[in-house]
Structure formats: C-alpha cells, structure tokens
Amino acid sequence: MQRPFRPEEYSLKETSPHLGGAASGDKLTTTYDLVEQMQYLYVRVGKAKELPSKDVTGSCDPYVEVKLGNYKGTTRHFEKKTNPEWNQVFAFSKERIQSSVVEITVKDKDFVKDDFIGRVLFDLNEVPKRVPPDSPLAPQWYRLEERNGHKVKGELMLAVWMGTQADEAFPEAWHSDAASVPGDGLASIRSKVYLTPKLWYLRVNVIEAQDLIPNDRTRFPEVYVKAMLGNQALRTRPSPSRTLNPMWNEDLMFVAAEPFEEHLILSVEDRIAPGKDDVLGRTAISLQHVPRRLDHKLLNSQWYNLAKHVIVDGEQKETKFSSRVHLRICLEGGYHVLDESTHYSSDLRPTAKPLWKHSIGILELGILTAQGLLPMKTKDGRGTTDAYCVAKYGQKWVRTRTIIDSFTPKWNEQYTWEVYDPCTVITIGVFDNCHLNGGEKANGARDTRIGKVRIRLSTLETDRVYTHAYPLIVLTPAGVKKMGEVQLAVRFTCSSLLNMMHLYSQPLLPKMHYVHPLSVIQVDNLRRQATNIVSTRLSRAEPPLRKEIVEYMLDVDSHMWSMRKSKANFFRIMGVLSPLIAVAKWFDQICHWRNPLTTILIHILFVILVLYPELILPTIFLYLFLIGVWYYRWRPRQPPHMDTRLSHAESAHPDELDEEFDTFPTSRPPDIVRMRYDRLRSVAGRIQTVVGDLATQGERLQSLLSWRDPRATALFVTFCFVAAIVLYVTPFRVVVFLAGLYTLRHPRFRHRMPSVPLNFFRRLPARTDSML
C-alpha cells in the first residue's frame, strides 16, 4: 500500500555541517573546505630487500599484511623474489580504529600455511600528522623483527602518517571500509575523474557522381549515396536525374569522437527493386585528414575514386575503375555537439577550442553524506546498499568511492569545475554498486539508480556556500518514492561580475547554430548518436562508468511519451497564463463597476495617460521596477530541487506510470495496448478540436477581405473606408479617449448580448465546410 503524500518529505532541508574543520582543535588549512574532514591512518608499503627464504626449496614468495585491530589488508605477492616492490597504500578510517598499534607483517605465501618472515610495529600515538600542501612523507627502511622483538634479516620500506581525505594517496588507497571486497572488485569502488570524449559534427556534402557503371544497362539507374561512420548510417534521397552522372547536393550529418579511429565509408548504390540494392562503388575516408572549419565559409570540395567489389571464385577482390564521387567533407568546430537535453545543458561551448571564451568563475561541489537510503539489494539474507555518487558538469564527470554496506554513507569528497556560462546545470546522481564481486562478468548486473539532483548555476548567489540535504526521488511503476537524502555543499565563485553580466546578452549556443541552423530532427538524431558514443567510451574506462549510469545522467529517455509529463506541462502552461487570466478578470470587474472607487481611479489614470501619452512607457517600466523590488524580500533562498507536485508524480494513475515505463516498442499485452491507444485517441481528439477552432478563427480573419462572403466583405470594406475618413479628421487622443470611456462604461449602459463586431466576426465563413 502506497504511503500518503507528505509534501515536507520531499522538501529541501538546510543543513549545518562542520565544513573544513580540523580535528582536535588543530588549526590546519586545507583546500577541502566544502566537506567535513575525515581522519585516516595511511600506511605506504614501498619495497623490501634481503628477505630470507622460508621454503624448503629456498625460494621466497613475499607479500605484506597490514593489520589494525579487526581490519587487515594485504598486498599482492611476488613469486621467488627477495627484493619485491609493492608501492601500495592502505587507509584506515580513524572512526573505526580499535587498536593503538598497527602491525605490518611480511609473509611468505605457501600452499598449506603462509610462513612468517618478520614484522614492524607502530604506536599510533607516535605517528606524524600530515595535511596537504605539506610534502609527502618520505618512506624509510625498517628492520624486520620476530614476534619476540628480536631483529631478523630483511628490511621493509614504509611510510606511516595520519592524514585526511585531501591526501594525494587517498583515491588509489586500499580502504578498511572495503575490506570485504575481493581484489577483482577493488577497481570498481575507487573514486575517479572521467572526461567526455571530444565530439565533432561531421558534415558530408554529397554533390554528384560521375561515370557510374550499373550492372543492368537496360534501365535508368535510381542512384543514392549511403554513408556509414561506426554504427551511424545515413543515405541521400535517390537522385532526381536518373543518369550515369547523378547529382544530389545533400548534406549528411554525423557525430565523430576523438581520437578518430573509424573510417567514413561511402557507397554509391542503385535501387533495383524494393529491398534490393546494387553497390556501384565505395570508398573509405580517414577522418584524420578531413579539414576542420570554425565558421560557415565553404571549404574546397574533392573527388574520390570509387572501388567496385566483384565476387570472383568465392573471393572478394577490389577492382578500381574510373567512377568517382564529388564530396565536400568537413569537421564542424563552430557547433556545440549536444549530448544532453537542451533543458539541462552543462556546457554550451563550441567544439573548437580557439572559439572558447574565457571562464567566468569556478564551481565547487562537496559531496558530503547521504541519509536514510533504502536497501537496494539482498546479501546474506539482509538488505544492503553500496552507494556512490556521480556528478557531471561540462566535459568532466566525477565518481566518488563506493561506501560498502551503509545506509548513511559518508563520502566527503570535493571537486571543482571551470564555469563558462552561468545558465548551465550540474547533475548529481546516487547509485548502488552491483559489481563488487565480479558482477560485470556474471549475469550482466546493472547499477541501480537511487536518485538524481540538478542545480542550475544561475539560481545561486556568488561566493555563498549552499549546504542542503536534497531528497532523492525516483519514479517507479508503483508511484513516486523517496530513496533517501544526499547532503551537498555548493559554491559558485565569480571571477568577473562584468563578464558574467555581459553573457546574459549573448546567444545561448555558438554562432553556427544560428547562421547555419540544424533541423529539429537532425538535432534529435545527432544527440542520440552523441549520447551513444559518450556512454560507450566511458563504459570502457577503468573503473567503467557504465552505460545505464551515463544514460540516466544525460536523460536519454526524456523525449519519450508520458501522460504524466503531458499533464504536468499543461498545468505549467496554465501557471504561466494564470497572471494574464487574473488581470483579465480584474479588468472585467473594473469595467462592470464592482468596486466604484477603483473604477473611478482607473478613469482618472486613463484620462492622464490620454492627455500625456509620453508617460505610458515610463509608467509601465516603473511599475515593473516596483514589483521587482517588492518581490526581492521573498526571493528564493534555496536552490531549486525535484518537485513532485510540479511533476504530477504523486497524483499519476498506476496505468499511466506503467505506460511511461513501458519499452519502445511496447512489450505489453494487446488488450492493454488497445486501451491505451483508445485513451490516446480521445486525448488527441480534444487537441484536434482545439487546433481546428484556432484554424477557424484565423480563416475568418482571412475571409474579411477574401470576398468569400461578398456581403460581409462589402460591409467590412465600407466600414474601413468610413473609419479612415473619420480617423483622418479626428485627433487620435479623442478616439482613444472615447474608446476607453466606452470600454469602461457603467453596467446600466451594458447588455448581456454579444457585441456587434463579435456577431459580425462569428458569421464570417471558414474552410471547415471544405473539410472531409
């Protein structure tokens, strides 16, 4: 049973974390000033020398075991090596330290029982403290000891210190929190910074082909050009000139990513019959040598020879001949390749770096903690969550480390981005890691989404630190669900207020989007291809940022049909129009003298504006200024967050949610699909009626002078002639004054019947009579 809706449960909460504070009252400075400091004991195991052999074979297979209380970490082992080099770092959270001594033991790996070689002990009270920007602690050689304290042969190079998460060793260190994770799963829990591959639009202008040789010379060829780049495939329309020298002059647009590993494959094909095409020739073009342009100036075109494939004795051979194709190919550096929804873009810069403007500031994000996370999976008969965060802004993605088996994970990691435009959005997502035990190799597990937060930079005050707990809300087929809260600290620092203000007068997208715009369908298709490229590249990183994560962060499915979203957008429109409707109702009350005093004051104001029309515009702007100053007292103090009421998430019908989560094409039974189709038809029928009514009113306006109704047009033309003469001889102020008095006349001079102009307009003909 779904819980009752409580608005406060989904609201934003202001928090007061102890940001940047050092423990024990030490006045230590750190660049991590947007997170709470977390103390760690670091142990760097460098290398060993002159280790004695313990096996009967005389060999030594050494590894190091670092033990602190109940936590134990081990290095990899080397076979038959007495001078091994590990260079591994171990980090133990100070909150969970249960011992006053850290024990570092060198052991010899054996089949039955590992042999003890020697150990080094450190008293935690004597461990030095280090906080960057202090230089790293230099490792030292320590003589190994027996358990009884006697020195033995062999030395171990170690460095032991107390530090924070700001330490350079922190990201790659083995963490005591992840002691239960096997070695092959450690890579998937570490923090990581990723970069989106540099994306270009590739424009292929297919101009013409010459000297084609069709296989069937008894017919006129129906030729088109097919282009492929990776898994992207586009084709031109068939050439209208059905000759051996066809012409197209058609643009094909692709998305290409650096480094350019794939070739552009073009083939000229002849459509013999539906579903049957004959390849007349093809060519492969390396993108490494394709010219790049930064503006809309045309580049030189080029002829490319075509190679025709002929099957001879079952083997494929290439035979070159004189057929060729005329192309103009370029990599477009003046566009911004859209890989995000245009509503939540985090980067608007063009591809070519020479066109970038200077940055206007710095965005700093502290990912602190999460509270009240729900169990996402079952392990050993109990619910558990292994949470990590992903943040995306511009070309930079960051991924925090995974906190194992915790519903209140503490990350306390801080990241920084350069800001080039304030009208951009940073997206932060929380996910459950399902790949700790080799899950990527078995059963194709997918990391589960816990929730997402978007913060628009233009809604933030500069140099202010925002510390809030954001609700993590997801929509499921069962309804809206709160998965917990994530606590963030955000600061937007502006380097030049003047430059930032100037940006508000600049176009949102680069110049080429307006000089040589792409169609809506092109942008949508190219965005889909760009998203696919980004998700594929990032999923090949180590640790991988998986495809389902990237698609969720980039809102890949935001364009899919949803009855819930349609209702939400309708009520958003009504919310925009409601002030206008309120003004219209207020003016109607003025005209009907509901409040005589207000109506009289409006009459006086109207007379003043008629006598002094030069006061109209200053009065309007002064009124808007006063409204803005008045509302300043109630300006938003908190950044926006996911609004379930605005999204109509809490009131959505279960069947509407099931339709929203359906696959494309549908996987539901025919009866359900038929019911939804009928519902969609009824909604579309109402929209069709509204659109038809709008068309009718427009056609009536056109029919005023079209003489479709000769009597109506004659009356209108005569009225226009008389009105022109009257207005020529009557001062304009008098006309406006009389029209205003007529509009504001007293109710006793009004009647309930429609006015004469409205009656006349409704009688005008429209083209509905000609509709089937």
What portion of the residues fall into strands of 2 or more residues?
Answer: 25-35%
* Global outline: globular
Radius of gyration: 36 Å
Strand count, sense and barrel status of the largest sheet are: 5 strands, antiparallel
- What strand order characterises the main sheet? 1-29-30-21-26
- Which regions are unreliable across 5 or more consecutive residues at pLDDT < 50? 22-29, 310-316
Which percent bin holds the helix content? 10-25%
Class inferred from helices and paired strands: alpha+beta
How many helices? The count is: 12
| Strand tally | 30
The separation of the N and C termini measures 50 Å
Q: Overall mean pLDDT score?
A: 87
Transmembrane segments: 599-632, 714-744
Biased composition (Basic and acidic residues): 1-16
InterPro entries: C2_dom (IPR000008), C2B_MCTP_PRT_plant (IPR047257), C2C_MCTP_PRT_plant (IPR047258), C2D_MCTP_PRT_plant (IPR047255), MCTP_C (IPR013583), QUIRKY-like (IPR047259)
Keywords: Membrane, Repeat, Transmembrane, Transmembrane helix
Explain this structure.
One of its GO terms (cellular component) is endomembrane system. Belongs to the MCTP family. The chain is α+β, with helices and mostly antiparallel strands and 772 residues long. The strands form seven sheets. Strands 1-29-30-21-26 form a five-stranded antiparallel β-sheet, with no helix packed on it.
